[in-house]
Every structure is written in C-alpha cells, then in structure tokens.
Prior knowledge:
The protein has 1 helix and 4 strands, in the order E-E-E-E-H. By secondary structure, it is of the alpha+beta class. The chain has a 4-stranded antiparallel sheet. It is globular, with a radius of gyration of 11 Å. The protein starts with a strand and ends with a helix.
Amino acid sequence: MNWHKSSYSGGNGGDCVEVAEGQEVLVRDTQNRELGHLGFVPEEWAALVQALHTEK
C-alpha cells in the first residue's frame, strides 16, 4: 500500500488522515494507524469528498 496524507487534512500537523488509492480507497487516522482503516469503493469516496466539500 502506498499511503499518503490526504490533501483535505489540515497542514498544521493536527487531525490528519492518510489515504491509499487503488481498486479500493483506504483511509486511516495518521496518529492511530494500528487501529486499522476504513475502505470505500472509489465512487463512494468521491461522493463523500464531494459532500464534505459542499458543506464548507
């Protein structure tokens, strides 16, 4: 897995999530990696990001 910090995470080193993209989009808490991750199909992830962006 190639994890990277989400572009939607704050740049201040605070609340961050990491994302691994492929056939499934995996999301985990940067500070609690050992707790696992959530998995989304790419269409679900895109819908979630769009919904959150709309809420801003």
